[in-house]
Amino acid sequence: MLICHTIKEIRDFVRQARSRGLTVGFVPTMGYFHEGHLTLMRRAKEACDVVVVSIFVNPLQFGPREDYDRYPRDLDRDVSLAREVGVDAIFHPSVEEMYPPGFATHVDVEGLTECLCGLSRPGHFRGVATVVTKLFNIVRPDRAFFGQKDAQQALVIRRMVEDLNMDLEIVTVPTVREEDGLAMSSRNVYLSPEERRAATVLPRSLQAARRAYESGERDAGRLVELVRGMIAAEPRAVIDYVEIRSIPDLKPVSRLDGPALLALAVRFGSTRLIDNLVLGSPDGVL
Ligand code: AMP
């Protein structure tokens, strides 16, 4: 497995693969791998001849009071996990490599970034769209793989790819969960044992909403209240948002007639966790 730190190195690697007629799959990440990341890599491996994974904690997508500095990092462990999965190349650039002095261009996806995490994290999706555009231009993959755990991000990227005529396919992969249902996240390591136990209210509340939906409940307000009520009963949980919005436009909905996203963000101490449920889509994926 090749480990590249410069844009030139990874470009040379991909160029060679392409010249041999191989397809390129790409998994952008911020590292500190868990089973969710590894599942994306396995999916990429199944679907493409060559798999490139980027590891880059992107300062542009963190707010000034967010966890950029303390975001967990462990390159050695990530490299050995990626190797086990059969990844062909890791791209691990420095901040200076990605944002040299004078860097001035950003990508703004309007509309669907102006709700949910876009409200509580101003500038976050601008940072995501900008770095993903750069990474797509550097790696030029045939397919890129994103987790449904970050559903709004996946929808923003799809919109951007369509709007800017980027020539690749976006594949969304279902959320990988711990045994007790908590969505895997690099940020779960921040949780104290008590907060970790309390956080299981998130998957439990989403499952309750799914059962209510399957029993015929189509009123968005009542489904949201069901989830809010369960989370509010957990003293360590502080709700940022619980909302139901349409897929793919993320417009508010009052009745669930088509595919919809029940999305939530909840704080446990200083850790903000997100999770979601796709309703009204045959396979439960975005
Ligand atoms: P991150 O390193 O957190 O930026 O995540 C990199 C990619 O992994 C993104 O596409 C995420 O949506 C995806 N991902 C993160 N957690 C999970 C999970 N629990 N299940 C599936 N995909 C995930």
TrEMBL record:
Keyword list, A-Z: ATP-binding, Cytoplasm, Ligase, Nucleotide-binding, Pantothenate biosynthesis
**Gene3D superfamilies in UniProt:** HUPs (3.40.50.620), Pantoate-beta-alanine ligase, C-terminal domain (3.30.1300.10)
GO annotation, cellular component aspect: cytosol
GO biological process, any: pantothenate biosynthetic process
Q: What is its EC number?
A: 6.3.2.1
The catalytic residues are: 37 (proton donor)
What residues does ATP bind to?
A: 30-37, 147-150, 176, 184-187
Q: Which GO terms describe its molecular function?
A: ATP binding; pantoate-beta-alanine ligase activity
Principal location listed in the UniProt entry: cytoplasm
Highest taxon listed in the record's lineage: Bacteria
Protein localization: Cytoplasm
Q: Which residues bind beta-alanine?
A: 61
Q: In which pathway does it act?
A: Cofactor biosynthesis; (R)-pantothenate biosynthesis; (R)-pantothenate from (R)-pantoate and beta-alanine: step 1/1
Per UniProt, where does (R)-pantoate bind? 61, 153
> What family, per the record?
Belongs to the pantothenate synthetase family.
What does the subunit section of this Swiss-Prot or TrEMBL entry state? Homodimer.
Note, other: The reaction proceeds by a bi uni uni bi ping pong mechanism.
The job of this chain, per UniProt, is described as: Catalyzes the condensation of pantoate with beta-alanine in an ATP-dependent reaction via a pantoyl-adenylate intermediate.
Name it. Answer: Pantothenate synthetase
In which organism is this protein found? Desulfofundulus thermosubterraneus DSM 16057
